Amino acid sequence: MTTDLDQLRAELLASIDASSGVDALDAVRVHALGKQGAVTGLLKTLGGMSPEERQETGPRIHALREAVTDAIAARKAALEGAALEAKLAAETLDMTLPADSVPAGSVHPVSQVMDELAEIFADLGFAVATGPEIEDDWHNFTALNIPETHPARAMHDTFYLAGDHASPMVLRTHTSPVQIRAMKAAGGHKPVRIIAPGRTYRSDSDATHTPMFHQVEGLVIDKGITLGHLKWTLETFLKAFFERDDIVLRLRPSYFPFTEPSAEVDVGYTLINGKRVIGGDPSKGDGGWMEVLGSGMVHRKVIAAGGYDPDEWQGFAFGCGIDRLAMLKYGMDDLRAFFDGDLRWLKHYGFSALDVPTLSGGVGA
Ligand code: PHE
């Protein structure tokens, strides 16, 4: 028995060592440890042994099984490591070689719209501001007058990051935390005029919602700012964006914790060949209203959280889904396709890298 076991061990270890690939190794594994395997067969003989015999032979068979199992695991790791090395070596790209075809990509509609927004608002004196996508709870909620127990927190379907922070970290649920960052950066004593385009995240997914989406925030802080400034700014922006003078706005009373008063803004559309087209008289034919953004006068508490004295400074803010703007302007109807990375879609809806939006040349396509 002893020599049998030693011989079997030597044979098995040799064939494990000799396996040149994962498949060959697996065949050895089945031969040794499978249902009909040699080692499995030995284990089965334990039942028929006398207690003395079992005490003597049992540990040896178990040791054999362990040695074979370990050797297979080690060989598998080595083979996989070698395969990865070979793959990495084979897939090396020489980035200095000249391209053998023109690049197939194009500018994504979301990028195009962001460039259009920057261009339109630059003309109105707005700078572009940014903030982190991994945001702390204070900037995303508390400073925006959304205290811990506020139901708006639940409405946002927030992705929380694991970890033990004094202020929990979240994937920002909107671009509004950039309001606070922009005010803080301006230091509490000079006007602020910014837009903040970027990625935002909510745990939500269907034809019109994706867990990652894009928003643009607008913020003006100055002295003597009124709702009239807000309405004029939005009207000027939407006319420039949709490249039509006959854009009609409707401000509907609404609620956001960080603005008071708050208004949701609808734009009028008309129906042309069954398609909703922004602009024209919404009361005619099958026209109607479409909600495009949220807005309002910045809440006193938010102005204070940004380091400004709310008795002296006022402001307005708005927030708008960029993906939705792109869909309305360029006629896509499924949001999910935006993030599929399908070159055929991009070929159809994408823009030339040379097609930079300018106010003089038109911010359209
Ligand atoms: N942050 C709000 C949202 O994501 C939009 C908004 C921004 C509303 C600024 C008012 C002012 O729904």
Automatic annotation (TrEMBL):
Keywords in alphabetical order: Aminoacyl-tRNA synthetase, ATP-binding, Cytoplasm, Ligase, Magnesium, Metal-binding, Nucleotide-binding, Protein biosynthesis
Catalysed transformations (reactions): tRNA(Phe) + L-phenylalanine + ATP = L-phenylalanyl-tRNA(Phe) + AMP + diphosphate + H(+)
Ranges annotated as spanning the membrane: none
Cellular compartment(s): Cytoplasm
Cofactor annotation: Mg(2+)
Positions that bind Mg(2+): 260
Residue span(s) of domain Aminoacyl-transfer RNA synthetases class-II family profile: 111-357
Molecular-function GO terms, alphabetical: ATP binding; magnesium ion binding; phenylalanine-tRNA ligase activity; tRNA binding
Top-level enzyme category: ligase
GO CC, any one term: cytoplasm
Family, as annotated: Belongs to the class-II aminoacyl-tRNA synthetase family. Phe-tRNA synthetase alpha subunit type 1 subfamily.
Protein name: Phenylalanine--tRNA ligase alpha subunit
